Amino acid sequence: VTLTAVTANMPVKAEEEKDFSVDGVFDEWSGMSMQSSTDPNIDSWSVARDDDNVYFYVRENNCTDYLQTLADTSFQITYSDGSEGADSGIRFAYMLDSVKDDSYADIAGEDIVYEPTSKDGSYNVEFCVPYSYFASADFSLSFCGTTISDTDIPTYGTAATDTKTQDTQTTDTQ
Q1: CA 43 to CA 41: how far, in whole Å?
Q2: Which of 26, 69, 52, 147 is nearest to 109 (CA)?
Q3: Cβ contact 170:4 at 8 Å
Q4: Distance in angstroms (rounded) separating the CA atoms of residues 162 and 35
Q5: Which residue in 91, 100, 124, 161 could disulfide with 74, CB within 3.0 to 4.6 Å?
Q6: Can you tell me whether residue 40 is helix, strand or coil?
Q7: Alpha-carbon distance 90 to 51, whole Å?
Q8: What are 107-130's pLDDT values in tens digits?
Q9: What is the pLDDT of residue 66?
Q10: Residue 67: band (very low, low, confident or very high) from pLDDT cuts 50, 70, 90
Q11: Burial letters for 107-141: b for 16+ Cβ neighbours within 10 Å, e otherwise?
């Protein structure tokens, strides 16, 4: 008796398809898991990634067009290999006109936009930094009392496709 098991390459999507962009339209964040905040000026936040960028959403409280509370905060990045440097944080310029590294230098390829919500003093902010900004693919993000591991960041696009292969096996039994 000869038994043959054959399996094909099967792409497995990690998440339903979403197209993230930094455009002031926040629909893509609907249904995303929101992280809590210990900062009373930050209501909640979320993060996602695709092949090229890591995208962030933050809902601010107690803001005006001239006072963005997010500018007084930063995301801290911890790398499992202990790497440290300017790429160990993400900060914001005054008036949220750009995203900066931990040394307040420009991050090439970043983008940011913010819009007021219907709630007085509350703003939606979305921004992205290139995935290449991160010194290592093995990191965690901490922001306003909450930490999330890179493995828990929802992934979209071809980065979400994990092709698993199992070799063809032939076994003779008698």
Answers
A1: 6
A2: 52
A3: yes
A4: 26
A5: 91
A6: coil
A7: 19
A8: 999 999 999 998 888 999 999 999
A9: 82
A10: confident
A11: beebbbbbeeeeeeeebbbbbbbeeebbbeeebbb
